[in-house]
Design goal:
By secondary structure, the protein is α/β, with parallel strands linked by helices. It has helices at residues 27-40, 63-74, 91-101, 210-214, 219-227; strands at 8-13, 16-21, 50-55, 79-85, 103-107, 115-118, 121-125, 133-136, 140-146, 149-152, 162-167, 171-174, 177-180, 189-197, 202-207.
Length: 228
């Protein structure tokens, strides 16, 4: 039985349609009502393509079940499924999430010619010398001097940050954004962080206090370290 008698709810937005599917009823009930509602809410051939997002709540769907939903939606002209969103993770997804959010502590000096790469966040206690390079899919925190190359968000995460006790890098990279060392002689700066400025679309370097304002979610970093 569906909660409040609603099995399929269709909501229109300026970006397209959102289909909310009840996660307390059988998959067969969803298919039956979805076919009925889409038949009633037909789309004219002359209308532009409408993007559809399907939200399935706390329900797991197999690949075949997802294809079944997509086929029913595709039967209606001018509708295309853009995404199926679920609040449930598969074991594989959960392990990948865990791997990408773990903090890897490293105690060493990264010397010229050395490259050190981790999944998730990197906590380096030591220096990155000129010619050395550190890379992480998440954030990079360096308790030491950054004078080489640091690349955070290597898989495209533009929200990643790079923080160091002393910042005078040869190069900073966050996702696909690149910031080279200044052409003029610089003394470097203490306790700074680099992040992608969403307005300018380039990497900015600001005081370390900027981290808590831009990334309040990093409070979980402290909890992971304490629980680890």
């Amino acid at each position: 039985m569906a909660v409040n008698g609603q099995i399929v709810m269709i909501k229109g937005t300026r970006d397209g349609l959102i289909l909310h599917l009840n996660d307390q009823c059988s998959f067969e009930s969803i298919i039956h009502e979805l076919e009925q509602k889409l038949s009633v809410n037909g789309v004219d051939h002359d209308e532009p393509m409408i993007r559809v997002t399907i939200r399935i709540g706390k329900r797991y769907l197999s690949g075949q079940q997802q294809e079944t939903l997509k086929e029913i939606v595709r039967e209606k002209q001018r509708l295309v499924v853009e995404a199926i969103e679920s609040e449930v993770m598969t074991k594989k997804e959960a392990l990948a999430w865990k791997e990408n959010t773990e903090v890897t502590p490293i105690v060493k000096t990264i010397r010229s010619g050395q490259v050190f790469e981790v999944r998730g966040d990197m906590l380096l206690i030591g220096d990155v010398n000129p010619g050395g390079q550190v890379m992480a899919t998440g954030n990079i925190f360096i308790m030491g001097r950054l004078r080489g190359v640091a690349h955070a968000g290597t898989q495209g995460d533009e929200q990643a940050i790079i923080a160091a006790s002393y910042m005078k890098p040869n190069q900073l990279r966050i996702a696909d954004q690149l910031s080279r060392a200044p052409d003029y002689e610089s003394e470097g700066v203490y306790m700074e962080c680099g992040f992608v400025d969403e307005v300018k679309g380039s990497i900015r370097i600001e005081s370390l206090q900027e981290v808590t304002r831009r990334r309040p979610d990093l409070a979980s970093f402290e909890r992971r370290m304490l629980n680890g």
